[in-house]
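As a point of orientation, let us examine one representative protein, giving the amino acid sequence and backbone structure tokens.
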Amino acid sequence: ALIWSKMSTGLPIEIRSSLKGQNYVSFCRLDIDIHR
């Protein structure tokens, strides 16, 4: 659900990370960098 809600924003970087799945940690870190 967390990833789905972020996909609504339409950020390609987050979508690429979500496709990998294994790099879920990196996905969260990228989200933090974007907010900052």
Observations:
- The mean pLDDT is 58.
- Helices lie at 2-7, 12-20, 24-35.
- Residues 6 and 14 are 7 Å apart (CA to CA).
